[in-house]
Structures are given as C-alpha cells and as structure tokens.
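debug: dumping io for the single-chain case to check the tokenizer round-trip. Nothing else runs in this session.
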Amino acid sequence: MVRARRLIGVLTVSLLVVAGAGGAVAAERPDLSALCLNPPTLDPHVPGDTPVNDQSSINCLAWQTFIALDWPAGGGTPSDFGRPGDLSPVAWSTFVDVPNLRIGPDRAGIDGPPAADAIPQPADCPADVDVTVTLRQHANLGSGFSITEQVFPASQPAWLADRDANPVLYQFLINREQYDYIHRSGLIDRAAQYPALALGTPVDMPRGTAGGDVGSIEVKAAWLMLPPGAAGDPRWHDRYKLARARVYDEGERHCEIRDVALVGLHIVHKTESNPQWIWSTFEHVDNVPDASAVADGTASGERYRFWSGACTEQVVPDACRTLAVGSCRPQSPAPATTSCQPNTAPAYCLDLFNRECPAYPIQVTRELPVADSGENLVRQTNAAVQQMIREGAGTDSVWQYYQLVGTIWSGAPVEQNAPGGTPKVTPLSIAGMRPSDSALPLANTMLETFTQSTGCLSCHRTASIAVTGASGSRNFASDYSFVLRNLAAAFARDAAEPPPEWPAEGTEADP
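debug: decoded output
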C-alpha cells in the first residue's frame, strides 16, 4: 500500500510538471505528500527517525533534518527562517566544534566541551565583535583539522576557491548527544579507547528514535570566505546563509574577522532504523554546473560561483611550487601553471594568509547529476520543498536556494555494533546501503571536489579508534565515524604540547 501510494503521487507530480512546461495548465505547487509519506514542514524539531524506510521518505527526512538544524538557534517563527543578511547562529552552530575540543596537560576541560568564547583568542582578534563561527587553523595537526584542505587527495593540495579566488573554509561539529556518549564512555581520552574495546565493549553511538531521542548527528560545513564588506552585497545578502567568523592561524598567530557564506553541508545521522547512519548532503544551487552542461555548452558562466567560461591559466610562482603547509606537501613534479580543467586539484598548498601564494579560482563541475528517476526523485523533492519554504517562510528566505544532492541509507541494515556484541575491526560492512557507492557515489562538490566518484562509505567504513602502541594490529572500528580518532589527536597533542600562549591583550604579537 505504501509503495502504491508513492507511485501514484510520483505520476501526479510528473503530469503537473509536463503540463506546466507546455503552458496548458498554470504552475501548481508540487505535492510533497505525493512524493513521500513524511513530508517536511517548517518545524524546528529534529526528527529522531522515520517509521517509513524507503528512498523517498529518507530524502524527505533529510530535508526535515536540514530545516530543523538550520532553524535560528534562538528560536523563532517560520518568517525568521532564512531572513536575508541574518548573521545569527543556526541550531547546528551550537554543536560541539571537534577541532576546538582541547585539554591541557592537567586534563583540565575534559568534563565538558568549552564554550566558543572560552577558546583562547589572539590579542589582535577584536574581542568585542560577535561571531558565530570559529575557524581555527591548528599548528602541527593533520589534515583532519585543516580549515582549508579537503580530506582527499591526502597530504597534497586539496583546497577550493571560487571564481573570484575567495577560499572555502571547513568546520566539523557533533551534537551534544554524541559528545556526551563519547565522554561517558571514557573514549574522549586516546589512552582509554583501546582498553575499553579490548574488554568487549563496541563503539555504538547513540541512535535516534521516531518521536524520541534525536541520536548522534555529525555536521561538516563548507563556508566561503567573503571579501571585507561583502555581506551587504545583494549577491550574498539575498541568496546565502551568512555568518560572522573568527578566522585565525595558530602557527602564524594571525587573526581576521570575516563574513562567510554557507556553500555546502554534510549531515550524518544515526537512527534506530539506520544503524549504519543516514548520509545526506546539501549545496547551494549556484555552486556548480553539471559536467554534461559544460560539455554541451549550455552552462552559464555568470550564474555559477565555482565555474567560469572565462577561466585562464596562471603561472605558478617558484616559491609556491615548493611550499609545504601543515600536512600538505608539494606535488612532484610541481605544476608550472594552474589548470582550467574542472575538478583538478590545486597546483600548490595554500597558506591562508600568505599573499605571495594566494588562492586562485578552481574550476568545478558536478560529475554525477542530482538524481531524479525511479524511486530517487531528488530534483522533484527539492522543487517541492523550495516552494514550501517560499510559501511558509517568505519569498525572500535564503534557504530556498539550497538543494539536497542526495542521501545514502540502510535499505537492509547490517547490525555492526549491537549493545553487548563483540567489537568489530575495520572495515565495517556497507552491504545493504542504498544507493550503493558503486551504483551512485554521493559527493558534495564543495567537500569532495576532487574525488566525486568515491562515495562516503568507502572511506567511513575504515574509521577506527586512535591507534596506540597497545592496539597493535587490532584496528577496532569506531562506528563509521572519524570523531574518536580526531578528538583523541587533539587531546593528545595538547597533553604533550600545550598550545602557544597568545599575547596578552594590549601587547604586540611576536613577529
């Protein structure tokens, strides 16, 4: 009965689209209830799970989660959802910022995540400016903590910048439910992870339930750093979620207050019906054209922020060809020029505040179009939700300009971390995941620009606890999440080498 209703609804929407395109029938609002049995609404409550497990319902659940997580953190009515120029935080902005979770040699701070305003700031960062995002480039930490580098290609240049050479910065957060589980389990401490699992306790992050607990949620955001004073420009003000960010480089001891625009968002949610997590990803509609549109000449270079038909190659300065930044190492041989070939990794490593080797435009296209066939009617769902936002939040809501790229879910769940079970070693099973990585890899062009043919789970199935001398070859799995290893890396680093003291306010920083 569920499947029959869904097919009838899909036919209804298709007829409306065709009729409207021919001009015979006036455009009508797409029927969300015909696309899924759990149609999203303008509601600030994050759903813990869905009682209906099929592709259409998972797509609608992803949109409902996106709406709730992007609701104003201070509450509000639907008319507050996506007000142009609003710099205030959204709900997920209050999550725990993983790279900024740090403890000192005396283990101070291990009892809970620090407030954003408790993170040490450099003296030349204005203290009287309200910021909602802290983007901190860590010294001596790996690529998992880089605010400028994507994960792949590993240890090579993997940054991104738009057609005006504005760089993209990254932020990684987890919700309080997930943090509390990690803390209660003692897994926040690198040295405690292996002994806990060796005793027979698997890592089983909290699961959301329909009408009950939210469960574990991880968020990875891609922010475009805007030029000074750009927030008032209608190009940004009217179409993007904006935030005021404190951007600083720990190694260079350099800080700037900059406005940033949201261009990409991963949301990963563990639920009772999806113990292998639900993987959804969103982008701004103006990011990139489909590769097929570029190939057939129908892409408009003026519309897209990360692609231009007027791209020109540039000579790479000699100093940039040998530049190493953090875990990023120069390519060998180093390119002599930049490239206009879409989805080509940068020619050199990016030191964010190095004016001699600045960011330059990277050409990006979407290699696999957003799905809209069979059961996976993502484009139709996007059109229906965007219309619902315009009607309920207002025709000026910036959230109408975001789209679901796709979701992955457990069509036939494989229980890997049942309470009381035996801890598994990597790689974990990805059997039963739909769509499969081989059939339809899910990639966000802002977060996996250079590896769009490799799906999320091909990597996340290898996620493990922190590797220590005691663990030997037993690579215990960490429930598809890299959080444990990343948290442990930050804490271990601080325990061995406390972060440098910022100069006292009113004094000058060392050169």
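debug: round-trip ok. The chain has a mean pLDDT of 83.
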